[in-house]
Amino acid sequence: MTNLIDVPSEEGEVCDYDLNNLALYAALMDAADAGLSWQESARQILRLDEYDIISFDLYERHLQRARWIVGKGLQSALIAFSKKT
Hints:
Blueprint: H1 16-20, H2 22-33, H3 38-44, H4 55-70, H5 74-84
């Protein structure tokens, strides 16, 4: 299993968890855009058991957070990245 937390932040700011999981977020968005099923994404990207009852919820919450970052959260992300360098 990866270092996933049950509920990624829903705050309006990018947090360290987001910064540490950018590659994961990008992979989830790429897979969703390519039409990969949530089950395949959960198994291949998140390293979750697709039959575990919480896997869909974890997948969905992380995909939503990823989409927030590249949408409404982009300004917050750019500020957070500039502070890390």
